[in-house]
Every structure is written in C-alpha cells, then in structure tokens.
Amino acid sequence: MVAVLFGITLVASAGVGAVHMVTAEPIAQAEAAAKVAALERVLPAFERTESETVTRDEMPITVYTATQGADVVGYAVETMSKNGFGGPISLMVGFSPAGEVLNVNVLKQTETPGLGTKMADEGNPLLASFEGRNPADMKLAVRKDGGDVDALTAATISSRAYVDAMSRAYAALVEVRDGETVRDGVSGASQQSANEPEAQEGGQNE
After folding, report:
1. Distance CA 36, CA 26 (A)
2. Angle (nearest 5°) at CA 67 between 63 and 73
3. Do 89 and 106 contact (CB within 8 A), yes or no?
4. How many domains are there within the chain?
5. Is residue 10, in this structure, part of any structural domain at all?
C-alpha cells in the first residue's frame, strides 16, 4: 500500500512539474505582452521606456518613464492596492510629464461582477474623476469620505481601493520624477464610515 501511494505521488508530482515547465514560458510571454499593451493604452506614442521600482506601503510600485527621442512624453505607473472587496487590485496609470492623469488600465481585479468590476469599464466614474487632472490638485478620497472622486454605484470599497492605488501611483511618480517623498497620500481606502457595516454581503453594501 505504501509503495503504491508513493508511486502515485511520484507520478503526480512529475506530471505537475512537467506541466509547469511547459506552461511557464508561454505564461511569462503573455504577461509581458499584456504589460506592453497596457503601456500603449495609457501613454502617448513612445519609442522606449525605462523602469524603476519603488516601495510604497511595503508594496512594489513600478514607474516607467516613456521617451520619444530625447523627450520624456509621459510616465506609466504599475500600482496596486490590497484593499479591494474581492482582493488586491492592480492598475497601470498613465501620467503626462506634468502629472495629469492620461488614462488608467485595470490590470487585475476580482471585484463583485456588475459592481466593483465596473472600474474596468471605459468612462466609468472613477476614471472620469481622474482623467485630465493632476492628483496634486485633488483630495484623494471618494466623495462619501469628503474627497473629489465619484465612486462606483454600490461599490464603495472597490472605489476606495481604486483611489488608494491611484494615490500610491502618484506618490511613486513624484518620488521617481522629482526625487521627493509624498507623505500625505490621503485616499480614504482604509477609512470606514461610521454608518457603514464592516461586513458586506452580496455586494449590496459594497
């Protein structure tokens, strides 16, 4: 019996290892292609990018400096928040050289379908609140928390996480571009309204 179980385990382990070896390279290639596509969506035309990763709140945030010839045409920041309703969210945020938000591409989210997932929709209220604006001129919180950002309907927690990621993106941009540290990245992502229950069910209070 022991020998049979050992043999089954050995074969299963070998199979898993073989599958990983076969799929690892295609997965890596797909992720790289998705990253390039995200950069192209949030930036103006560019010839090349240089990347620098900084740590914000114990999370790696990567800033891509995009150039055309000798000119910097924009920055793209791969940012994240751990505060999503369904788990971490990741964004690629495009900034002009002066710091205005050009576009946002949602790289990863596991939010409630039809509610928090709308953060990835074109022209959604979150994107509309940021597009064309410099976060330095905004109070980075949803309006429910006294900020300047319109939240998704029935998806306050997801909206707070989005703003949290955007706040972190801008702080990383300033750190890389200007060599300055933004200490007051107020986002409201971890704030809880006194009237809002801690537990959420079915997305109704999200």
Report:
1. 15
2. 85
3. yes
4. 1
5. no
> pTM higher than 0.85 for the full model?
no
pLDDT in tens, 84-115: 999 999 999 999 999 999 999 999 999 999 99
Identify the burial level of 67 via C-beta atoms within 10 angstroms of its C-beta, where 0-12 means exposed, 13-18 middle and 19 or more buried. middle
- Residue 47 is assigned to a structural domain of this protein: yes
Q: Which residue type sits at 112? A: T
Residue 153 lies in a domain: yes
The domain of 60 spans 43-178
CA distance to 3, 11, 61, 78, 165, per residue, from 93 (Å): 55, 45, 11, 6, 9
